[in-house]
Amino acid sequence: xxxxxxxxxxxxxxxxxxxxxxxxxxxxxxxxxxxxxxxxxxxxxxxxxxxxxxxxxxxxxxxxxxxxxxxxxxxxxxxxxxxxxxxxxxxxxxxxxxxxxxxxxxxxxxxxxxxxxxxxxxxxxxxxxxxxxxxxxxxxxxxxxxxxxxxxxxxxxxxxxxxxxxxxxxxxxxxxxxxxxxxxxxxxxxxxxxxxxxxxxxxxxxxxxxxxxxxxxxxxxxxxxxxxxxxxxxxxxxxxxxxxxxxxxxxxxxxxxxxxxxxxxxxxxxxxxxxxxxxxxxxxxxxxxxxxxxxxxxxxxxxxxxxxxxxxxxxxxxxxxxxxxxxxxxxxxxxxxxxxxxxxxxxxxxxxxxxxxxxxxxxxxxxxxxxxxxxxxxxxxxxxxxxxxxxxxxxxxxxxxxxxxxxxxxxxxxxxxxxxxxxxxxxxxxxxxxxxxxxxxxxxxxxxxxxxxxxxxxxxxxxxxxxxxxxxxxxxxxxxxxxxxxxxxxxxxxxxxxxxxxxxxxxxxxxxxxxxxxxxxxxxxxxxxxxxxxxxxxxxxxxxxxxxxxxxxxxxxxxxxxxxxxxxxxxxxxxxxxxxxxxxxxxxxxxxxxxxxxxxxxxxxxxxxxxxxxxxxxxxxxxxxxxxxxxxxxxxxxxxxxxxxxxxxxxxxxxxxxxxxxxxxxxxxxxxxxxxxxxxxxxxxxxxxxxxxxxxxxxxxxxxxxxxxxxxxxxxxxxxxxxxxxxxxxxxxxxxxxxxxxxxxxxxxxxxxxxxxxxxxxxxxxxxxxxxxxxxxxxxxxxxxxxxxxxxxxxxxxxxxxxxxxxxxxxxxxxxxxxxxxxxxx
Length: 826
Description:
Layout: H1 2-7, H2 10-27, E1 30-36, E2 44-46, H3 48-51, E3 65-68, E4 75-78, E5 83-86, H4 92-96, E6 103-110, E7 115-124, E8 137-143, E9 151-154, E10 169-173, E11 178-182, E12 189-193, E13 204-212, E14 220-230, E15 238-239, E16 243-249, E17 257-260, E18 263-264, E19 274-278, H5 284-289, E20 290-292, E21 298-301, E22 312-321, E23 328-338, E24 346-351, E25 356-357, E26 365-372, E27 382-386, E28 392-398, E29 401-406, E30 417-426, E31 433-443, E32 451-452, E33 456-462, E34 469-473, E35 476-477, E36 487-491, E37 495-496, E38 499-500, E39 505-507, E40 513-516, E41 527-536, E42 543-553, E43 561-563, E44 570-572, E45 574-582, E46 590-593, E47 596-597, E48 607-613, E49 623-625, E50 631-634, E51 645-654, E52 661-671, E53 679-685, H6 709-718, H7 720-743, E54 745-746, H8 750-755, E55 757-762, E56 765-771, E57 786-791, H9 813-817
Parallel strand pairs: 1-7, 8-14, 16-23, 25-31, 33-42, 45-52
Antiparallel strand pairs: 2-5, 3-6, 4-5, 6-7, 9-12, 10-13, 11-12, 13-14, 15-18, 17-21, 19-22, 20-21, 22-23, 24-26, 26-29, 27-30, 28-29, 30-31, 32-35, 34-40, 36-41, 37-38, 39-40, 41-42, 43-44, 43-47, 45-53, 46-50, 48-51, 49-50, 51-52, 54-55, 55-56, 56-57
Helix pairs in contact: 6-7
């Protein structure tokens, strides 16, 4: 068993080596193919898709494409079968000249995700170029005195092919006097004289030099050599060595000495005088870049030497004596040009993914970069770098090829674009560098919601506004761009007092202007909370909301309302009442109290009272009305001269601009007796309040008839003994009731519910409570929520002066009366 395993171990080892080689080729990231030059269109090169591990079905969706350096479409890929084939004619000599290696570098790009592969296709040489001599016919002059064994260098043929196709062999035809010597190392061809020449016998020899290359099939080239035999001079100049090698830096200045040659001639006289010149077969390139001094043999630089263009020159130099005939010596000078760091690196940028979205993931490939330098050695070694402070980096992909990839996150709102500068620096001394830039624009994504300057705005609007009036403009700013920054506005719908918010206000979708759709009423709605939404046009859209606190400012659009005494409810803008006052009443006797409310708020609801009409008869009026309390009281003791009936007209005025008024008519009857019972008449109502500065009140007629005074006197005389105590008790009760009313009286019930207002009066002033909602006022059923104003006129017990002489004293509701709290305040 051991012996059998040893015999068969070769095949597994070979299979293992093949697997390792395939794995190495797959991991190297590069494919190599070869194709002969001059291949026809469609020639198969390789199954590139299969070798790269790509499926044929994904070539088109992933945008499989091939790019070659220089832009020539020499090779193409069939996307149906993934085969790389020859697209156009390839001439190896045109592509690579005489370079030993010749290949076409391809970059294979596959997107989604992006992959870059590098493929090299070797272009193999074929024997398509025949050997070529520099001239078709060469004329030589040889003196007959030359001895056998003399050597005459010839210019050999050249073959544009390489390798075996460029290995030449030479044959010389039709010659008995000459033989051909070929140096196998440098392929130099020399004509050797085998037999002495006799000009008289044969003055000219016609030779055919044939060069054959080593290709299959062989190709040949030929040159006709015509040798003219000269006479006389028998010694030719000779150099110290047949070949010289010198080195010189490229870009050397004109006149720089390359070499000084020295040839010797044993002849004397003119036959030993030597002049130097370039051989007639020297190429025009040599003549353009070098010069030789005929007398000294000094070879100098003429023109600029460029290593990248030509890195070596082979110069054939003749030394000619002045004999008759002259004789010449020959040598070869091999000039090697040394490279200098005179070429800057070249950068080629290929943009792929521009612009770049600001939410692009790290590692996204932005561009492909390739660099090159025409210099050689360290002068041609290039390194690449990026200018600092950019969110990108360079990733080397293959030799001098890089990918520009995203290295950190982008934010278009901070930086909208980057000017990326790529710098390439060679390793020469001193180093040379080049730079190239690419503009990387950052594309916007919808990552910013519209923002308002404030989270809440306070807006003041007077009530009774015109429908459709503009009350405010909301503006939201979006830091994004284009559609992502286009903001539209809308109203966030909700219910306000059982009605939709959109019935009160509307918002223009583009400008953000807020309009009131109907007149607002402060007494109905003091504060309207409006929420506006701003949305951008991105996908998906982003948005934010802002709140408008719309305060409806009060206007003096409600006249004072007089309260009927009996029901406590509103009686209208004018009322009439009848009161009985005993003539025995002294100064300060309270006759009655006029009560009124105003649905407005603040100063518009602050009421004052004044006596508008005095009693007839011309006597001084014995009555007055409290400026802020509305109490009608006597100013002096009544006497017999006072008229038994007096008509008092009380004007109730608010403090609005313009002021609105209401009037109350009080009919006062003076009676003899110890008590009087006031009563309100419900039978007469005058005209309404006026919006002007003064509103007239109509007189009311038909008051209740007075009780006959005589009846009271008879009753008093008959029952004085029995009713005296009762009269005193009733009088005391009446005084107590009147005093209690003076101490503090509240109006509540239906009047407060209907008018949503409350007036509380006392001996020191009047409380005006403007109620917003229908709630019970001055009761213990729930805490009132009202705006409260306190007025203290501080009136003396005397005649009432003109309106406004005693300014009101205002108290801060929040501090003094604890409005909007859990306490009862009336």
